[in-house]
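Let us work through a complete example step by step.
Step 1: write down the sequence.
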Amino acid sequence: MNQKAFIFDLDGVIVDTAKYHFLAWQKIAGRLGINFSHEHNEQLKGVSRVRSLDIILGLGGVEAAQEDKDRWLIEKNEDYLGYITNMKEDEILEGVVPVLQYLKDNNQKIALGSASKNARPILEKVGILHYFDAIVDGNDVTNAKPDPEVFIRAAQLLGMQSEGAMVFEDSVAGIQAANVADMVSIGIGDKTVLHEAQYNFNDFTEISTEFLEQLVKN
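Step 2: predict the structure and record it as C-alpha cells.
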C-alpha cells in the first residue's frame, strides 16, 4: 500500500478544548465585572491571548495598566492548564480513534499540526499520543495559519512530500493553509463555513474506510 502523510489539527478536530479557554476567560471577565457570553467568545476564535484580553476589556469598557494585563494573562493560562490537566479519554471527539487506528494499521504516517502550545500534554492526557509519528505545535512555528508553515514542517518531520499530504482541519485559516501548501484539505465541521476545503464532513463518524482507502491510493 502507498504511504501518505496524514496531518491533524488538534482543537475542534481531535478534542474540544475551546470550552476550557472560554471558562478561563469568563473567570477573568467575571472578576472585572464584565459579562462574557458564548456569543462574545466567538470574537476570540483564532485570536492571540493578548488580543483576546483587549477584546474582553473593550466589552466592559475597562482601562488597565500593562502590569495588570500581564497578571491576568498569566492567571488565564494557569486556569486553562488546570482544566486540561483533568482531561480524559472520553473527551476525544467521536470517530477520531477508529480513523487513527485504520491509518496506523495500514502503515500510514500520522502527524499533529496545531497552534496549541499544550498539544503534547493534551494528547497524553487523552491517551492517543502513541498514534503520532510527529508533532508540530505552537512551540515549533513562528507563523500562524493561514501560513502553511505548521503543515509543511509536519510533512518534513514525517519524511514526506507536502504535495498530496492530507490535512484534517476545522478552521477556515487551517483549510487555507493546507491549500496553499498543495495538500488535500479535509474540512471537519460546517460545510458552508469550510467551503474552501476539497472534502467536507460534519465529524469523523462520517468518514468511511473506503474514503481513507481512496486517499491512500490516489
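Step 3: interpret the result. The two ends are 11 Å apart (CA to CA).
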